[in-house]
TrEMBL record:
NCBIfam families: DOC_P1. GO terms for molecular function: kinase activity. It holds the Pfam family Fic. Residues 7-127 form the Fido domain. This is Death on curing protein.
Amino acid sequence: MTDIEYPTADDVHALHDTIVAENRDTDAGTRNPDAVGSALVYVSEGYFGEVPETIHEKAAHLARLLATEHPYVDGNKRTALAAATMLYNLNGYEFDWEDRWMRYILRDFATEGSELEMAAIVRRFEGWAKHYTRE
């Protein structure tokens, strides 16, 4: 896979809007709209010479950044999961999953942030992609 397609910031905002609409206990609102664009630039172009290379690295970093940067008032972890899934879907992966471990990782992103070992998280994403998708 050489040409990777990415969701746009508008796509991610639309995912969040859907999450808010489907969950009555989720508060609407944006706290830091630039965080979404920044996360997407990092996974597609990188910063300071560091660029996630594989689709799994890109999905893991996108989820981490959206979960930890809190672009929205509420629903950040769910939006992070949805955006990572969209990235996979745009690139030929068809997810069919409900994995409690993914939710634990997203919770950990939000509470522990950069203390998590990204290499281990990327390996988890690779495993989930192999287990829960058809490429």
